[in-house]
Amino acid sequence: MEMTLYLVRLGEISLKGQNRDFFERKLKDNIKYKLRPYRSRFTKQKGRLFIEVDAEAPEELVRQAISTSFGVVGFSKALKCAKNMEAVSEAAATLTSRPSFLDGVQTFKVETVRADKKFPMQSYDISGQLGYEILTANPQLKVNVRQPDRILHVEIRDHAYLYASPEPGPGGLPVGTAGRGMLMLSGGIDSPVAAYRMAKRGLRQEAVYFHAYPYTSDEAKEKVISLAKILSPYCSGITLHVVPFTDVQLHIKTHSHEEENTLLMRACMMRIANVLAKKRNCLAIVTGESLSQVASQTLESLAFTNSMSDLPVFRPLVGMDKGEIVVTSRMIGTYETSILPYEDCCTIFSPKHPLVRPEKEKLTEVYDSMGIEALLDQALEDAEIFAL
Ligand code: ATP
Ligand code: MG
Question: How far is it between the farthest Cα atoms of the chain?
Fold first, then answer.
């Protein structure tokens, strides 16, 4: 079977000591899963992962699989050849005569890394010789060592590897190396970005969405399912729990003052998320909150919501401006879906003048007096589950 070779550069993983193997194995599993049903073979070398993929696999699928996998800092299709100068010259000629190397290119340079110090030529001399040969075959090109349009990379290892123009990867650590978290996923801009940021630190996530039908429409639910699907490659799969929330919200409305509604609702979400998290072996909650963005995210409000959780609550966006969050949201492809106009339950039940600086003790008393625990249990029991 013909296979195409990809060279993957690893970042933070290479700095790991004793348990580097664990991180590399997770990365391999994550990429291999995305490449199914095509055959793939993985080999590791210090700082590098080599992937051979069935040549029939569409290039776009392979690129998507690698470029969404945290732990990768860069990657490129590569050629592998015997470790002698004749074979390296031939491979260089093949690679540099391709349109993918030549198109729109006026200047280039060759960069050689000689990991095998026993190789008889020095890096500088290898680059020099290949540069000369490429110039001879392509007299229209020039060498520019400072700002070339294209770089031919040569790595002398167990074999010689050649590649050009590596694409950037997402960095971070492989999903699944940091344990599991429960993401509170709404239809907004923020929580999908929070999911991305925590996945980047290796957290595997399940998601929970609170749905208040018919106050929130079926479209709002479909929107959250779409967001989870977009997040799925970054998260190496995501299980979404859709919790019916209408009865909880109506109960809050009739048992509290209007200005307390939002925070009591956030408290109920946090409680349910905690129970669900523990059921699903998650050790943390993830939200898209950002300090002072809205009334329910002032320091006092966050302190109250936090007190409803006995698991750590990760808020990776806490110090980010909306503009910065939007940049990431566009980059990961959730923005266009997030801005679809279907309202989520928070907007519909929002008071005109929500509490901005709640007193934690007072609000906790209101919460306790509502007698809402049985409704929360019921809501969780009635959840729908989607594997995305
Ligand atoms: P987002 O853009 O993520 O919707 P937001 O700016 O609208 O956030 P809030 O509505 O206050 O802010 O929600 C804060 C966080 O609470 C969200 O980022 C999300 O993690 C969680 N959350 C809010 N509504 C829901 C919901 N219906 N289901 C699940 N989680 C929710
Ligand atoms: Mg929202």
Answer: 84
Per-residue pLDDT band for 346 (boundaries 50, 70, 90) equals: low
Give dist(CA 93, CA 91) in Å, integer.
Answer: 5
Distance 189 CA to ligand 1 centre (A): 9
CA distances from 127 to 83, 112, 123, 124, 153 (A): 15, 6, 6, 5, 9
Whether residue 107 sits in one domain with residue 16: yes
Give the pLDDT score at 9.
95
Q: What is the mean pLDDT of residues 34-62?
A: 95
The number of the ligand 1 atom at minimal distance from the alpha carbon of 347 is 10
Task: Tell me which of 37 and 306 has the higher pLDDT.
Answer: 306
Both 27 and 158 in a single domain? yes
In a domain, residue 103? The reply is yes
> How do beta strands 150-156 and 107-114 pair?
parallel
pLDDT in tens, 64-116: 999 999 999 999 999 999 999 999 999 999 999 999 999 999 999 999 999 99
Question: 86 and 197 share a domain?
Answer: no
Which residues form the pocket of ligand 1, taking CB atoms under 6 Å from any ligand atom? 184-186, 188-191, 208-210, 269, 287-289, 293-294, 296-297, 344-346
Residue 161 lies in a domain: yes
Condensed to tens digits (0 to 9), the pLDDT of residues 268-317 reads 999 999 999 999 999 999 999 999 888 888 999 999 999 999 999 999 99
pLDDT at residue number 46: 83
In a domain, 275, yes or no: yes
User: What is the CATH classification number for the domain harbouring 282?
Assistant: 3.40.50.620
Same domain (yes/no): 355, 219: yes
Work out how many domains the chain is built from and give that number: 2
Q: Could you give the 3-state DSSP secondary structure of residue 343?
A: coil
- Is residue 146 in some structural domain? yes
State which residues form the domain around 271: 180-387
For residue 215, what are the contacts with CB-CB under 8 A and spacing of at least 6?
246, 249, 345, 348, 349
Q: How far is the CA of 49 from the centre of ligand 2 (A)?
A: 39
